[in-house]
Amino acid sequence: MLRATLIRLPRAGASLATARAFTASAASRDIIKKLEESLTPREAVERKRKEFEAKYGDKLKQKVEAEGVANLDALKAKKVVPSILAKRKAEQYRQEELERAERLRQEQERALAEAKEAKDAAVAQKKEAARVANPDKDTTGVKPLASIINLPLILMTPHDQAQIAGIWNTYHTTHPTLSASFVSATIPKDTYTKMLELAKSDPHFVLPLPRAGKDGEAGAYEMFYMQWLFHAPPPAPPLEGKPSAPLPPVTSIIFTPLEEFKQAGEWAQPYLVLTNYPDLADSHGLVLMRGEISAQSAGGPPGAVDNPGYLLTQQEAQLLSLALQRFYCSDIAPPNENAKDQQERLKRKQALRDFREKPEEWNWQGLVDMAYGGLV
Asked: Which residues are in coiled coils (predicted)?
């Protein structure tokens, strides 16, 4: 009895690819690769070795005969092993050279550090020896007071405040080379102490300076940036009958045009430097102020016709000094101060604080009146 053989035909519209026989496709090659990877490493290596020998058997046999060795393993021992050993030796040599170079670098850095330390110690020792040999020498950029006047003589002989002020101002106004480039004054100790308190909290400020216009007309002002610098206090002179107390610090106030400071910053040219010497603060109750005007290589600027060769006239330097005192003495209430004067004084103090705390909101209006109060 015949059986009907059923043949399943592809559905209409179905792809012929589904009815094809298997071919050596990429999918089949991936399956073979996975089967190979499933072998143990030893089996895989052995199989690849046999495949290699089967492919290059004749050439390898000729090479074995040419080298005069018994078999392929002996050929490997003769050719491959020395090459591996050479590579290992080269790698070891390279590593040793790297370690040697690193040791050399560390030794050089250590030698340089020791040399720098020895040089710094020698310089410090030299400076200390110079300081001990000449204790009055300037080491901070500020000349000691003893290098300007005969300080021991003043301390040895009786002088009152008026006499010391006369000696100090006469020295600067009659000096043959300094009289055109210096201003001087004396400050009571208590006033200086109050000024220091404000200066420590508000060491930066701006002050207007009256300057002649292009055609010489009045009413023009140039803004000057100023900054306090604090130096070590001088040694206190011995006082009879009471122990010496520490003196206030020496201070310097540097003035430069605001526009120049904006452009050059800390490298801006100082136009005026005021220095306060508190050496006689305890013995005589006075601080000596000295202002040095910077020299200019060519003729003076407009408005300096009375003082050619300097960046400011003495009158301009005195105005800046006056404006400085009006702001930094704003904590000092003068005797019989009325309500209006008190309000103006406190307004100057507030201007210092606002310049420090709220510079972006700081108001320039009224600065001239606060600085000079109708004096110019």
From this structure: 87-132
Sheet with 286-293: list strands edge to edge: 182-188, 286-293, 272-277, 251-257, 220-230, 204-211
Q: What local confidence, expressed as pLDDT, does residue 175 receive?
A: 81
On whether the CB atoms of residues 204 and 327 are closer than 8 A, the answer is no
Cα-Cα-Cα-Cα dihedral sign, residues 231, 199, 321, 358 = positive
> Which has more confidence, 347 or 58?
347
d(CA 290, CA 144): 12
Domain boundaries, the chain: 28-67, 145-372
CA separation for the pair 313, 306 (Å, rounded): 7
Rounded to 5 degrees, φ, ψ at 238 are: -70, 135
Across the range 91-103, mean pLDDT stands at: 85
Q: Is 324 in a helix, a strand, or coil?
A: helix
Query: What one-character-per-residue DSSP string does 212-254 give?
Result: --TTS-S-EEEEEEEEEEE-PPPPPPP-TTSPPPPPPPPEEEE
Among 181, 375, 371, 187, smallest CA distance to 279 is for: 187
